[in-house]
Amino acid sequence: MKVAVVGTGYVGLVTGTCLAAEGNDVTCIDIDKQKITILQKGETPIYEPGLASLLKENIKDKRISFTTNLQQGVKSAEVIFLALPTPESEDGSADLSYILGVAKQLGPLIDHYVVVVDKSTVPVGTSKQVRQTIAKAAAKAVNFDVVSNPEFLKEGMAINDFMNPDRVVIGTSSDKAWRVMHRLYKPFMNDESKIIRMSEASAEITKYAANAMLATRISFMNAIANLCELSEADVREVQQGVGSDQRIGSSFLQAGPGYGGSCFPKDVQALLKTSRDLGYDFDILEATQSINQRQKHHMFERVKEYFNNNLEGKTLALWGLAFKANTDDIRESPALDLIKQATSAGIAIQAFDPEAMANVKKLYGNNKLLSFADDEYQVLEGADALMIITEWSEFQSPDFNRIKKSLKKSLIFDSRNLYDLGYMHEQGFDYISIGRPAVGI
Ligand code: NAD
Q1: 364 Cα: distance to centroid of ligand 1 (angstroms)
Q2: Kind and range of the H or E run holding 317
Q3: Which of 147, 173, 309, 321 has the highest CB neighbour number within 10 Å of its CB?
Q4: What is the pTM of this model?
């Protein structure tokens, strides 16, 4: 099938590459010239495991190409995916200007039946707006459908998630569009009943409901972690006990530094805004959001407490800047909050992340209290303590003797609960984690 993907970011590039891998003829379009130049050279502008090699293969086999020219990119496409940003607006709603801007440009370009697909996360009612915008911008009556097909991939696992999805949601009232979408996704599904058809509005709400549910699980467990800290419980034990209930399951139950990333914070905010606009008081989601705001400050409060507020001149080594492991994405990362809190209190930060340092340098390169190191041990040299923010696999079993030798004091603040409390005690560390008794103090 001939497919165009407008917006070649995390979602668009993964979508385009995976569709090409199934034999489709894909053109990815982006306004970012630098990104398109990188892609045309066969390189990948983002870090996503498995993407670089799959992309190279499909470029070599001429199944995927890249352009900045929308008209050229959508020419004779049977399906046009919109994988454009929907960032948070000032009032908390999802900013639809990217989507509606492209919809307006598409109007005059459509000259045959085409399915336009909202792949971005968009508020209920958006597919209607996209349809109206395209129709209004077209010179004559044009034949097209707009489908809502939200994306559920997880950064760090995106290729696998797209290739082997739990389910594919297709929101459409058009049988013709449904058949096109079904044909496109069938090669990815062993069980066709997992291609779920529903109305456009239900599909739009489904995406927000899924993200809000996951964010709520995280906040819930962070609240339980705070309760554990006030008692003698260990949240990891509680998590195991609760998560092994089949009705509950164990995913998204890890206590930590608070959720971040490009989706949960903005999607929770946007769903709250939609709810308010529709006159519904979504109080459980308000709590999810406020618990998360507090959690992003939690570990820094523990640092202040440990040092009795004498923070000026201290140095923290930071392991991890990405909002989670296996991505270079730093959007809304708890590490950014920590950097802001610590450096404004006079603490110097030495940071290391296997993939995300370039992105943080772009953002905070001129912060004099922030420096970067080449590896996870170099970053420790001369620091007063180590703080772990991201759960990269290389941090799971480090050389604790090397850590002790490099730090001024054997002190670790761990927002990911990576290490065993008993072992840290044996090793002589002061070890402060989330929702578990502190070791050594
Ligand atoms: P992104 O910022 O990584 O990519 C968006 C791309 O669109 C950028 O490359 C940008 O240059 C391009 N773009 C902007 N305006 C354009 C225009 N007029 N024409 C062509 N290209 C244009 O964003 P993303 O993370 O891929 O997210 C896209 C959407 O998918 C969002 O709605 C997001 O909420 C949703 N989503 C993201 C994820 C994720 O894990 N990142 C998962 C599911 C859903």
Answers
A1: 23
A2: strand 315-319
A3: 321
A4: 0.94
